[in-house]
Amino acid sequence: MSKLETNTIDTVSGTTNLVIGSTNSSTVTFENGAVTGHMYPAFHARLNSNQDISNAVTTKVQCGTEELDTDGYYDNATNYRFTPLVAGKYYVYAQANLSANANTNFVHGNIDLQKNGSSIVIYDHNLQSNPGNGLSVQGNRIIDMNGSTDYLEFFVLMNTNNSTQRIFGGSTGTTFFGAYRIGA
Questions:
Q1: What are the counts of helices (DSSP H) followed by strands (DSSP E) for the chain?
Q2: 8 Å CB contact between 160 and 106
Q3: How is residue 12 annotated by DSSP?
Q4: What is the mean pLDDT of each run of 10 residues along the chain (184 residues)?
Q5: Number of structural domains, the chain?
Q6: SS3 label, residue 74
Q7: Inside any domain, residue 12
Q8: pTM of the predicted model, to two decimals?
């Protein structure tokens, strides 16, 4: 086996991809923790304080506290959406801690992950036969993103037997939204 030592390997001017091995099977090993191009861009944001919502109305979750945003593609102040400018497959996840603020009032709740304004997956929980105070709803999905105009958003819906509906937020991170690139 040969050993090549160098400080820099760069692409040819005008190209963006560096190919190692073109006809033979190739394996490239990186040091532990080195960036490999996958898992970036990435973000993770949480709801910093409780968000009151209306009964039976689909509402965008305002995860405004970024704990990670590798490339600045998550809007944590206006639209609360992720618009990655790198095409590929993304692992998307969300969790909402929903509360009716009183025992036996929580009837139904869901989280709705949306791409470009349309639902891609809804995780639904119906407690009609045994209402409670609230519950935590989680969901995830792998989504293809085009790297230019595609965006992701996070919504919730609650039905209760009273007028108080709330998404719990705070420093413990009980309500959050995130995504990261897993491949081309």
A1: 0, 13
A2: yes
A3: P
A4: 72 68 55 58 96 90 96 97 96 91 74 96 74 79 96 92 80 92 89
A5: 1
A6: strand
A7: no
A8: 0.77
